[in-house]
Amino acid sequence: MRILFIGPPGAGKGTQAARVADRLGIPHISTGDMFRHHVSTGTELGRLVDSIMKAGEYVPDEITVEMLRDRLAEPDAAKGYILDGFPRTAGQVVALDGLIGVDGLDTALEFAIDEDALVERLLGRGRADDSEDTIRNRFKVYQEQTAPLLDLYRDRGILVAVDGLGEIDVVTERILKALGR
Ligand code: ADP
Questions:
Q1: What single DSSP character describes residue 59?
Q2: CA distance 155 to 31
């Protein structure tokens, strides 16, 4: 199964993607986690993306796509995966289509969540890119660049929306049900 998790920053995508991937026995592939790992281990890529992430901007597609392509080539990705935070731009959709085919994804799972709840959650999280200005910018960038992808996956007939608000366990069960598990 190849599943995409898509939704605004702070919707709880990462937490749920990890739990659902575990339950389904497939890897959780998060471009945000991969970038953070590069930053924390001080790689060249990490030094390049650090300031971009702190500003709440998106890392350029060519960098993100190359990293993702390498990850999908790892043996564990052969059995399927949950993509968390990729694709996030129209260009990344084109790149992913090129890698796995236009019908390569089984489901695009949208996290629908109330915006006020989101800001509160993010401010409470204390991550390096969670200052108020950065959060505001991440929302803006999400609305401009990523929200349009929802229509695209809806048109392809694979979009499923799940309410991301609630107890962590409850939301996980909701997602598994939406995925038919
Ligand atoms: P959140 O879900 O809270 O927005 P992520 O962990 O998914 O956080 O991403 C954190 C940051 O990593 C993003 O704000 C962006 O700078 C960078 N990033 C992650 N994935 C991508 C992507 N697919 N394209 C461009 N930048 C990305």
A1: P
A2: 25
Q: How far is the CA of 76 from the centre of ligand 1 (A)?
A: 22
Cα of 58 from ligand 1 centre, angstroms: 6
Q: Is the pTM of this model over 0.90?
A: yes
- Residue whose Cα lies nearest atom 12 of ligand 1: it is 32
35 lines ligand 1 (CB under 6 A): yes
User: What is the CATH classification number for the domain harbouring 109?
Assistant: 3.40.50.300
Q: What is the DSSP letter of 96?
A: H
Give yes or no for residue 64 CB within 6 A of ligand 1.
Answer: yes
Question: What is the residue-level pLDDT of the chain in tens, covering all 181 positions?
Answer: 999 999 998 888 999 999 999 999 999 999 999 999 999 999 999 999 999 999 999 999 999 999 999 999 999 999 999 999 999 999 999 999 999 999 999 999 999 888 777 877 788 887 888 888 888 888 899 999 999 999 999 999 999 999 998 999 999 999 999 999 8
Q: Specify the number of domains making up the chain.
A: 1
**Does the C-beta of 172 come closer than 6 Å to ligand 1?**
no
User: What is the rounded CA–CA span in Å between residue 168 and residue 129?
Assistant: 23
Residue 55 three-state SS: coil
